C-alpha cells in the first residue's frame, strides 16, 4: 500500500486527496526519518484540532522536517459539514469504529481507509475537544503507566497541557488501536461547548511542535519541558434521562461522595443525584442540559 507521505517527492509539501473526501497535508522532509500523523475532526463538532492542523499546514516546511509529517484537519468530512459528532448517513461514531471494515457502512469504510495507512506511521497525535455537548479541561491523554519508559506518557508530558489523563483502553478509538499495535499515540482534549477557543488552537500548535521536536522530527526545534499532573479516572454515567444541572466546575477538587449535579424530569422532579465515587479533580463535564440514560455527565480523575 502507498501511504500518503510516499505520494510526494522527498523535500516537498502539499495537499493530497484521500478516499471519501478526506484531505491531508503532507510534508516530506529533506532528511529521512520517522512518520507522524496529526489527526483532527474525527468528530464533526470539534474545532480546536482542525484549526490547529490547518495552521500547522501553513507553517511546517520540508527543510525543517526530518521524516514525514501528515496533518488531517478533518478526518470525517460528512460529520464536519453536518456539525455532528456522528456520521449523518449511518449514525456511527468514527471515534469508536477503528480499525473499520472496508465492506461495512460508510463510517466503517472511512475508518478502514484511514486506519490502513495511519497504522503504518510511527507516531499519532489525535486532537479532540468536547464538541457541542461537553467541556474538557485542557489535557493530553496517554496509554499505559505513567513511568519514564512509556513513550506515550512521555509524549503527553511534552505536549504542554496541565493535565495528563491515563486513558481507558476503549476499543475502536484511533489512538487506542494504534497503541495496541505498538505505536506511540496520544489523544488530547481542549474545552468544547461547540466553540473555538483561540488559546486552545495555540496550545495545540505548540504541543504538536513540541512532540515533533522531542521525537527528533524537528531537529532545530526545542521541545517543551516535561510537565503536567498524571491522573486516572472515567466518566460518571447518567442513570436517568432529563435535565442535567452540574454543581461543579472544570478543575474543581471534589471529595468522595460530594454532589456533582442532578438530573430532573421535565416536570421538575429530581430523578437522580450524581455523586463522586472518589476524591479527585473534575476534568470534564456535560454542558448540554438534556441528558439521556447512560450518557456521560462528569469525569472525575484522581492522581495516577
CATH superfamily of the largest domain: Zn peptidases
Could you name the CATH class of the largest domain? Alpha Beta
Task: Indicate the CATH architecture of the largest domain.
Answer: 3-Layer(aba) Sandwich
Helix content: 10-25%
Annotation field: number of helices = 6
Poorly predicted sequence stretches spanning 5 or more consecutive residues:
none
Structure write-up:
This protein is an alpha/beta fold. It folds into two domains: 4-227, Zn peptidases (Aminopeptidase), CATH 3.40.630.10; 232-303, RNA polymerase II/Efflux pump adaptor protein, barrel-sandwich hybrid domain (OB fold (Dihydrolipoamide Acetyltransferase, E2P), Beta Barrel). Helices cover 20% and strands 33% of the residues. It contains six helices and 16 strands. It has helices at residues 48-57, 77-82, 106-118, 151-158, 174-180, 198-214; strands at 12-17, 23-28, 31-39, 66-72, 123-127, 134-142, 163-166, 184-192, 229-237, 242-246, 253-254, 259-264, 270-275, 280-286, 290-291, 296-303. The strands form two sheets. It has a five-stranded mixed β-barrel with strand order 6-7-9-16-14. A four-stranded antiparallel beta sheet has the order 13-12-10-15, with no helix packed on it. The longest helix is centred in the last third of the chain and has 17 residues, at 198-214.
